[in-house]
Amino acid sequence: MGKKIKQLAIIGSTASGKSDLAILIAKKIDAYILSIDSLSIYKEIDIVSAKPSKQELQSVRHFGINEINPDEHFSVDIFISLYKKVLKKCKKDSKNLVIVGGTSFYLKSLLQGLSELPNITNTTSQNVKTELINLKKCHTLLSDIDPIYMQKIADNDNYRIEKALLIYRASKLTPSEWFRNNSPNAIIKDLSIFKIEVSRDILRQRILKRTQKMLDAGLIDEVCYLEKKYTRLRNSMGAIGIVEVLEYLDGKVTKEVMLQNISTHTSQLAKRQETFNRTQFEDVISAPLEELEEIILLSLHKY
Predict the structure, then answer these.
(1) Tens digits of per-residue pLDDT, 173-184?
(2) Can you tell me the mean pLDDT for 257-264?
(3) Inter-helix orientation angle 242-249/219-230, to 10°
(4) Which of 11, 76, 164, 190 is the most exposed place for a label (fewest CB within 10 A)?
(5) CATH class of 7-113+186-300
(6) DSSP 3-state helix, strand, coil percentages of the chain (rounded to 5)?
(7) Residue 123 pLDDT greater than 70, yes or no
(8) What is the mean pLDDT of the chain?
(9) Contact between 99 and 8 (Cβ < 8 Å)
(10) How many C-beta atoms surround the C-beta of residue 56 within 10 A?
């Protein structure tokens, strides 16, 4: 029987130092790293997402980074499938696992789980694909039968409309009814979560420095490349750092205002992340960055 895999999560606001700490811990406990970052998942979006360097990525095996192209869809259920694959790989290689990143919603999904989908036959799948030719009609149909579920789904969101329609056609229940009758099961039942505490003033200064560093590293050129290759229509092109550069390229703002906007919007994101992390997780161990390494290592020795 192989060794028991140790799993832990490191969360915190953007620019709080999560990635560096995760690499440090992973090296000390012989672990792989799974990133939970909604932007680092994309290939070619490197500077905007503030990914670890190539050297850092080579020093510890990372998953959840450079997994898909910017024009591909990514969702919670795809992330959960990725986590299951990574866990299987950890068990095969006798490695521990450090989960780290700013998109804590993905971590929440692992702890809560997802509801099972109904059995979808090939016939149902094909019929739904035919219906989806008129996407807005499908959105209207679903909004009429289940307005609460559909209120946050745009009429051009092909992926989520298809999922809702498949549930309805396969189960004869509205999505709300289906999910009410099919409670989710937790994917991870026991996970130590560590949160980096950092004052708002220090975080603001780090964000300002990181924004300037991104500009110096070629931020504008990267966004130009991404726009030319993938257009502005992709979901990934609506990220902080990309939107503000596109405004600059359109002549709407100066470079100085662009930088200020990126910093401001990143600080606002950090505040939302902090609120989510504070309210959505229980039994979290919080400490400043400089203390957390020792706390994590001591905690792991209790296994």
Answers:
(1) 999 999 999 988
(2) 98
(3) 90
(4) 190
(5) alpha beta
(6) 55, 10, 35
(7) yes
(8) 94
(9) yes
(10) 15
